[in-house]
Specification:
single chain; about 550 residues; alpha+beta; FAD/NAD(P)-binding domain; Flavocytochrome C3, Chain A, domain 1; 2 domains; 8-stranded mixed sheet; 19 helices; 22 strands; about 20% strand
Length: about 550
Amino acid sequence: MSQQQADAVVVGSGLAGLVATYELTRAGRKVIVVDQENRNNLGGQAFWSLGGLFLVDSPEQRRLGIKDSAELALQDWMGSAGFDRDDEDFWPRQWARAYVDFASTIKRQYLHDLGLRITPIVGWAERGGGFADGHGNSVPRFHLTWGTGPEVVRVFADPVLEAEKRGLVEFRFRHRVDELVMEEGAAVGVRGAILEPTDLERGVASSREVVGDFEVRAGAVIVTTGGIGHNHDLIRQNWPTERLGPAPSTMISGVPAYVDGRMLGIAESAGASLVNRDRMWHYTEGIHNWDPIWPDHAIRIIPGPSSLWLDANGNRLVPPNFPGFDTNATMKEILATGHDYSWFILTQSIIEKEFALSGSEQNPDITSKDMKFAFKSRLAKGAPGPVDAFTKHGIDFVVRDNLPELVAGMNAIARGPKLDLQQIELVISARDAEVDNKFSKDAQLMAITNARQYLGDKLTRVAKPHRLLDPDHGPLIAVRLNILTRKTLGGLETNLDSQVMRPDGTAFDGLFAAGEVAGFGGGGVHGYNALEGTFLGGCIFSGRAAGLAVARD
């Protein structure tokens, strides 16, 4: 029997792995962290994120007049999750209650003590499906980190790197785990392949050339390897066709190539329970990155509510499938056309105020924590620099001075039917006729009026209603929207200590999982729908639970 080399081996150096390692080293435990990528990728996918955090009844909310509570947040969570599986949703239900409690009590202070700071404007994401007890956030809860994803990573990476200097942490990069080491039914380590060294920059797809093998023995194994977001074959294999319609033919990737889902199958083969594998969270507002880092690199538009949304045939999407309201319902309607893309039509006035792009690299002012730069870029006339660059270089954007030229440009990049100018003009004219009054029967304009009752939206996020064909607000802009792959909502089933479960309902000795590989907790804490700002928080909450449990044991 090989000798134990550490108290825990953490598989994956993303956010959940860093959080687990942080908690273990706080307790004086020795940790070996293995990752198939190089040190430049420390922090994983979280580094590329916008840094949104779901918080409940925060000081930032209260300053903006938002009345939130744990009870309201739990109502929203459960209405969105739609838990309906007796066995597979047993632990996710408990994780949901525990996570909402965390988000409404100690989460903000826990992060604040580590040095994390929040911007003053709270965003209103996933505004919902139209019913109080259904999907969506009743109030704004999307808190943007000052420093975006890199800052969320930093506040955990810094103490972990300090622990590395003290000898409590050993990183083994370019080590790919291929197998769990088992003894007497317990996980006691990992073994796999050593990949050839590389100094590639963060996110760039790396070689899988094997140069050796390894085995690590430890008191516990914590798996934090993420989901299946770049493995399009696995996404299609698990795609919920009956619920959302046929899998898209064209997918573009919102995560790097190393997000391949390998550890899900490895853990399942060792006896772990893998649940809710058909639950996913992909975005309908994906655009090709004109300056890509990884293969099929995509960016998500985080839209305000004003763009006119048309399907591939040129028909307006039915309520409440408006920008930023109900991701999965919109996905279903788009795919029901038999095509895998849709269109935004908007004006320069709308793009200037309402378009944000996901990704830390697409928000350099906030990512760099440069207050002067942020005020200048956000308040200046014109679209933010990264957004403006996409209008000039992005293959999904069409910018024209009039509608005939706009529709012609849309048809030039359509992957399906050619749009009829007369039909598009009728749709837009009907919508434009509704903006002369402060009230309307148009559900989207009603939603915009509601949004502008919230000060944060009125000041920074939602354009004043105007006619799309008014030249004073031009030029006209169309965006071809693609399906962007992103998050895995199912995963390894875990109890509230992040300990992996077996299919028979017993705990898997020595094996823990956190982050996306565990469905952000329990094997699917989000159920069918996410409320946004909950992915980083899920990594933090489940990684913390794993670290605390292993340190305690």
